[in-house]
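Single-chain item
Fold in token form
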Amino acid sequence: MDITVKKNLEEGELAKGLIRIVLDILKPHEPNLPYFAKFLSEVSGVEGVNITLMEIDKETENIKVTMQGNDLDFAEITKAIEHYGGSIHSVDEVVAGQTMVEEVTTPQD
């Protein structure tokens, strides 16, 4: 591994080149999902957003958010989600690099 890359990773910097991220998010009912999707699509580097409602209760919505772009900024995405009172429960998938790599089934699956 290149010494500069290793040093940056040790200092907590994320490598550039995230092209897809899938997040499990808990958010209040407001803003509504169409507005929230449009808001997230305006984050720098984001080319597309897909939101799926997973669960809803009296005060919150649990949603799965898939974001795609050329150089997604995880810190900026996190700030945008928190701007409307959302919180990331988990990062469920991350794709980095220049090519989308699809998951394959192996005999162990």
Summary: The first helix runs from residue 3 to 10. The CA atoms of residues 31 and 84 lie 7 Å apart. The chain has a mean pLDDT of 89. Strands lie at 18-28, 46-56, 60-69, 87-96.
